[in-house]
Amino acid sequence: MFELIFLGTSASAPSIRRNLPAIVVKHDEHRFLVDCGEGTQRQILQAGIGFKRLNRILITHGHLDHILGLAGLLSTFMRWETIDELEIFGSRGALERIHDLLFGVVLRGANPPMPLNLRPIANGTFFEADDFTITAFPVQHRGADSLGFRFEEKGRRPFLPEKAEALGIPNGPLRRHLVEGQTVTLPDGRIITPDMVLGEYRRGTRLAIVGDAGEIDSLVEPCYQADALVIEATYLEEEAEMAHHFGHLTARRAAELARRAEVGALILTHLSRRYREKDVLHEAQAVFPNVFVARDFDVFQVKSGEPLRRTENRANGLSNG
Q1: Do the Cβ atoms of 152 and 206 come closer than 8 Å?
Q2: Annotated binding residue 145
Q3: Is the pLDDT of residue 66 over 70?
Q4: Shortest CA distance to 57 belongs to which of 106, 21, 81, 105?
Q5: Residue 231: enclosing H or E segment and its boundaries?
Q6: 27 annotated binding-site participant
Q7: Cα(270)–Cα(29) distance, integer angstroms
């Protein structure tokens, strides 16, 4: 399962209720920050999630509304918070701009308070844990050297404890070895194979996150059959020409991608102040029914084979209506 915490859902400039783009993705003990708009460090505090283990940042592209918060975040780490290392992943073009921001403006010759590593990535898998991977894929957006990210759990065969009990397999190492695919011998001499206690193969949860995008044709394959797709909806179809000019999507185009890619659920973000949320939702649902419009501090739980779960984080009594 992946958990999403939306820290900022506005496009280009903040509004009263929406901050600039930033999303926390959680998987067990792992936490990733996707984009870091201005004021993200305050949103982190407001959401009540804190800074611990928030040491990997993924940048979709180098436009200022997606990176300016890195300056404040690093400043916060320099004064009050400590982490062992900070890794920022992005395209070479984005990292060049981030380098100028952090080393030229914030640090200005000083040493960072922790090892600070800017890690260039391109198309392909760049992070692998025991049970999930993160893959980057190219996104077309005004020539900004943009990337999207696909989080994918590794598939597995679930352990069936009722079968293990029926076979008299004791708790402990023998069961663990069977889960790992090893054949074991019981104390009474019986040989137990993994097939005797494991269920059918289940694919892992898939999550696709796209920042700003100017077209959808190239995104169908990397987003294909994701359990949830997070993507921008900066414009409505009535201003499709403007959306095309500035390299953005309408809510309808985002929904068309969700339909073509056969995703489980669509979460729209990067919203313009010119539109009402219900109008964005209505336009998208006319094409793809299972749509959510994210609000700041919304929390979503994405799990393969289950409906998308959404809750609102009302930290400190804030409403995101």
Answers
A1: yes
A2: no
A3: yes
A4: 21
A5: strand 228-232
A6: no
A7: 27
